[in-house]
C-alpha cells in the first residue's frame, strides 16, 4: 500500500509519474492537500528560473498553498545535471516531514532514487559533433573533466576517450563516477502512473501548447534570449527552440506551434516507454482522480 510516511529510518514516498500533459501536477497537488505533504518536483527544466510557461510550472496559487521544492533552483545559464538534482533532492526530502515526488524526467528520478546507475544512451547529435574533433583534443577535454579515466586510457584510444567525453557532456558526471557503486536513497518509493489514453493525451498536449502561446511563451523566450543569449542549453529544449526559430524568421508562428506539438507528443511517447519499465507501478486513469488520491493515502 502507498504511505506518505513521516520521517523515520526508512520511509516510503509516493511518486506521481507519467507523460507530459497527463495531469501529474494537478494530481500531486490534490494528494498534497489531503495529506499535508510537500511536493518535490522531478523535472529537468523546471529547475531553471524564468522558464515558467514553456515548462508548465505549477502556478503561483498552487505554490502558495503547497510548498514546492526543486523548482527555480538555478539560472538558465548555469549547468545543472542529474547528479546535482539527486544530491539536492535527497537533501530536501531528508528535511521534509512528508513529501510527494511529482514529475516526468525519468533520468532525474532514477538518479534521485537509485543513485548512480547504468550509462544513459547518448544523443546522436552530440556524438556527431564530437566526431569532428581530433583524438588529441578530446583527450585534452577528458583530462580536464575526468583525470582518473584519462590516466587509465591510452591517448590514442579514440573510441573509449570519445565515449567518456560523451558521457560527461551528456550528464555532467565523469564516467569514473558512473562506474562507482550506486548509493540508493534512504527512502522507498511507491509509484503511481497516470494511465491516459493516447488520443486524450495528445489532445491535452495540443491544448496545453495553445495555452502556453496564449499566456506569453513568445515573450518568455524573448526575455531569455535578451538576458542569456541563444547558446544556453535549456533553450535547445522543446517549446523554446521552436520559438527561437520563429523569432529568427526561419518559420512562421503557426508552424512553430505545430512543431512544438509534434515534438511534445514524441517526447511523451518516450516518457511512457521509460516509466512502463518501472516495476510495481500502479497505473490508474486520470478520470479516477479521487480514487487515485484515496489510494495514495492508504
Task: Please give a structural write-up.
By secondary structure, the protein is an alpha/beta fold. It folds into 2 domains: 11-116 and 182-296, P-loop containing nucleotide triphosphate hydrolases (Rossmann fold, 3-Layer(aba) Sandwich); 124-178, Histone, subunit A. 51% of the residues lie in helices and 9% in strands. It is built from 14 helices and 6 strands. It has a 6-stranded parallel beta sheet with strand order 3-2-4-1-5-6, sandwiched between helices. α2 (60-65) links the parallel β2 (38-41) and β3 (68-69). α3 packs across α4 (106-114) and α6 (135-145) crosses α8. It is globular. The relative contact order is 0.18.
Structural Rg: 20 Å
Number of strands: 6
Major sheet description: 6 strands, parallel
β content, as a range? 5-15%
Please give the CATH architecture of the largest domain: 3-Layer(aba) Sandwich
N-C termini distance: 6 Å
Count of helical regions:
14
- Into how many domains do the coordinates divide? 2
Side by side, the strands of the main sheet go 3-2-4-1-5-6
